[in-house]
Amino acid sequence: MNLHALRIFTKVAALKSVTKAADALSISQPAVTIQIRNLEKETGLKLIKTEGRGINLTKEGEFLVKRAESLFNMEQDIENKLIQLKDGELQELHISSTSLPANYLLPTWLAKFKLAYPSVKINLSSGNSYQLVDQLLHYKSDIAFVVKEEWHHPTIQLHHLMDIEFWFIVPTGHKYDGQEVSLHDLMDEPFLVREEGSSTREVLFSLCNLHNVPVPNIGIQFHGLNESIRSVLAGYGAMLAPSLAVKDHIHRNELGKVLVKDIEIKRPVYLCTRKEDAHTIHLSRLIDLINGFTKDDFY
Predict the structure, then answer these.
(1) What pLDDT, in 10s, does the model give residues 257-273?
(2) Going from the N-terminus, what domains does the chain have, and what CATH number goes with each?
(3) Residues with Cβ < 8 Å from 173, sequence gap 6 or more?
(4) In angstroms, rounded to a whole number, what is the distance separating the alpha carbons of residues 78 and 54?
């Protein structure tokens, strides 16, 4: 496949315009058009359709551009690592994580790692599990940490690290503080929930589905774990939260814990890498260090 034409195609797809792509690449508009036509001829597929003054991708074009983006991201990743190798060894790790590992596990792991290898630069980004898998597949991260029920992906290697308990919490002094109640009764309370794509939201709604209970009455939707907990600390609502995030507040009697009849919730934490990748020295060292910890080290 003509990679030059493919690169031009991805620029057209990103800008949704042949004219803008030509300006961005500093080539003529006819040259861009010729390369797209050559790519369509080579693949035997219609990749772009014109709509008004703009363009849209066909379903075949959407498939190709996603694969092309992954290819060019991998190319960039290789170039960056080669530059580091010229300077002696790889000295940078890109890590992505959902909010629970990022806030309550990785600070300890990364602090220990940096004490042992202070010259290694670490970049940590966070998001929901779908975003992190995408980052890993597109070579925007070297390793990812997700909290998700058992799942499989053909190109991602999963390593189970531990299971984290999730608890229902309410403000201190709430009528259900320290009580055992039914899931149905608890769902009548105003709930703080996470955004779509959050694993905590998924498990809460799946739990309601499983027990044939209406989904919670959503009081506030947050795009962050800590923000949700702070609202409960301030006296509003109920929520499902990881025990690691709220255990200290409960011990200090700043939050109330609700027991729900016949329900115990645990979520697995996975370390994710690309299956076919050979781990760099520092990535292997980080993984070895993490494997030396257990859940008990955080309680």
Answers:
(1) 999 988 989 989 999 99
(2) 3-66 (1.10.10.10), 83-162+268-298 (3.40.190.10), 163-267 (3.40.190.290)
(3) 256
(4) 34
